[in-house]
Design goal:
The complex is a heterodimer of chains A (249) and B (221). Chain A has 249 residues and is of the alpha+beta class. Helix content of chain A is 38%, strand content 18%. Chain A has a 6-stranded antiparallel β-sheet with strand order 2-1-3-4-5-6, sandwiched between helices. Chain A has a two-stranded parallel ribbon with strand order 7-8. The longest helix of chain A is centred in the first third of the chain and has 44 residues. The radius of gyration of chain A is 22 Å and the shape is globular. The termini of chain A are far apart. Chain B has 221 residues and is mainly alpha-helical. Chain B is built from 11 helices and 2 strands. A two-stranded antiparallel ribbon of chain B has the order 1-2. In chain B, helix 4 packs antiparallel against helix 8. Chain B is globular, with a radius of gyration of 19 Å. The chains are: A alpha+beta (249), B mainly alpha (221). Chains A and B meet through helix 1 of A and helix 5 and helix 6 of B.
């Protein structure tokens, strides 16, 4: 049977309205639930830098209690409002979008992990970092102690590093454990970051290097560049807090 | 809905049972003799991409079965009204509708899995099995039969990728459903990197096809 053009056009219209309508309604109905899922995921990643999160943990509860967040710029100044005068929320800052800007223009969120019994004391500063791995983007939340010297933990994420090789940064807990206790400043007080070396030999290394990932040198290089770049961006903020000698800002 | 349609038909014809021999074949054929992956060699791309571990594979199987059953049903219901000249586009829209629904639900209720599978769930739209069944079966058959056909083809796809995923996770990561088997048994085992790579999937798939064709005696024309 060969239908007329007008029949086809009407059929197309009805199909479009039906499909579009169904999807629009679903999207609106599921929107709030998706927002919660994404919030949960972001907050688990942030907390993942300082603790191991299990499924039973009340992530949102712990987060509300222990994390104080704000945004600074590359000069270490606190930024509270964007250009339009809207308040900036650290959790809503899209690090991937800011990554595309020049380093001095980026918004830099800081997540303070405060002491459980004394909320005026800072246990760790958790900083988001973002960079390029071998195939696509990699990111990490790095936790530094209150003096910004020692790495207290790190949680990696990646988009599509090679499974079993580069993807180990997020899947294999051994990789992130290697960073714990490493120093980002050398004896001269210069910021040197922590580098992953080539090859995986399990050898003891100085406080500025960690063992590499076998077969994933390129991912390792991406991670090294990412940490170096972002720690440098945050350096002005580190100096500011240290010179004021207050655990604040 | 589906049972209503089926019930009507049984009363009308008084001949075909709910699970007649022909209908059972609709489900059982794609499992073995007419398997979409091993015989028709469709849907290989996703069979390679998501079978590194079993957990995402299970979710992917459910997503494909859901999409196949419901798009087969919907297309079959409207098959007499779909203009012939734009039928492929209509099929595509219907598949895309269900796939997007799956993706949205996954995003809302299992976000970690959404992050792992995200792109591949979207790619079910281009999975040749789904479109192939719509064009070859649902456009010419009644709704209930189409549901069975979708279910059969979906299950045929599912058991193959689950089998592949089982061996890849077992040999590649030394675990089954994230349970570290070798560690639990205290057997020293070095994970096989080849199995984690796509090549591992090709090899396991080839072995499954080999065993299957030896048994069924199927030969390519």
């Amino acid at each position: 049977m060969r239908q007329s053009n007008s029949y086809i056009i009407i059929f197309t219209l009805i199909t479009t309205v039906f499909v579009g309508g169904t999807l629009a309604v679903t999207s609106i109905l599921l929107g709030p639930r998706q927002a919660i899922s994404i919030e949960y995921d972001t907050k688990s990643q942030i907390l993942g830098a300082v603790m191991t999160i299990t499924e039973d943990d009340d992530v949102l509860g712990i987060y509300d209690k222990r994390i104080v967040s704000f945004v600074v710029n590359s000069k270490g100044e606190l930024i509270e409002k964007d250009e339009k005068g809207q308040p900036i929320v650290a959790e809503k800052v899209d690090v991937s979008k800011n990554f595309k800007l020049a380093p001095e223009d980026r918004l830099l969120p800081v997540f303070k992990y405060v002491n459980e019994s004394d909320p005026s004391k800072v246990d760790a500063y958790i900083l988001p970092t973002y960079g390029n791995g071998l195939w696509n983007r990699v990111w990490a939340f790095i936790a530094l102690d209150a003096n910004f010297e020692t790495v207290k933990g790190i949680s990696f994420g990646h988009l599509q590093e090679t499974p079993g090789l580069g993807a180990r940064i997020s899947e294999d807990p051994v990789i992130s454990e290697r960073y714990v206790g490493k120093k980002i400043y050398n004896e001269k007080g210069e910021l040197v970051s922590v580098d992953m070396v080539k090859g995986e030999k399990g050898q003891p290394l100085d406080p500025h290097h960690v063992d590499g990932m076998s077969g994933a040198t390129m991912t390792g290089n991406g991670v090294n560049d990412m940490l170096k770049q972002y720690l440098n961006s945050y350096e002005a903020y580190f100096e500011k807090v240290k010179s004021q000698n207050v655990a604040g800002l | 809905m589906s049972t209503e349609v089926a019930a009507e038909k049984v009363v009308e014809k008084k001949s075909e049972e709910l699970f007649s021999k022909r209908r059972k074949k609709l489900i059982s054929d794609p499992l073995n003799e007419d398997n979409p992956i091993t015989i028709q060699v469709l849907g290989i791309c996703s069979a390679l991409a998501i079978t590194i571990k079993m957990e995402p594979t299970i979710i992917m199987s459910l997503a494909v079965i859901f999409t196949m059953v419901f798009s087969n049903l919907l297309i079959s219901l409207i098959r007499n009204y779909v203009p012939n000249r734009i039928r492929i586009i209509v099929q595509l829209a219907v598949v895309a509708l269900f796939v997007t629904l799956v993706s949205e639900f996954l995003k809302a209720f299992n976000y970690p899995m959404y992050k792992v599978l995200g792109a591949f769930v979207g790619l079910i739209i281009t999975n040749c099995i789904v479109m192939g069944r719509l064009e070859a079966f649902a456009m010419g058959n009644k709704p209930y039969d189409s549901i069975l056909d979708g279910l059969g083809s979906g299950l045929g796809y599912a058991w193959i990728i689950l089998a592949v995923a089982f061996f890849r996770e077992f040999l590649g990561s030394g675990s089954i459903l994230n349970f570290k088997v070798f560690e639990a048994l205290n057997i020293p085992y070095v994970n096989n990197g080849l199995m984690v790579d796509s090549i591992g999937a090709f090899m396991i798939l080839a072995i499954i096809i080999w065993i299957q064709r030896t048994k069924t005696g199927y030969v390519e024309q």
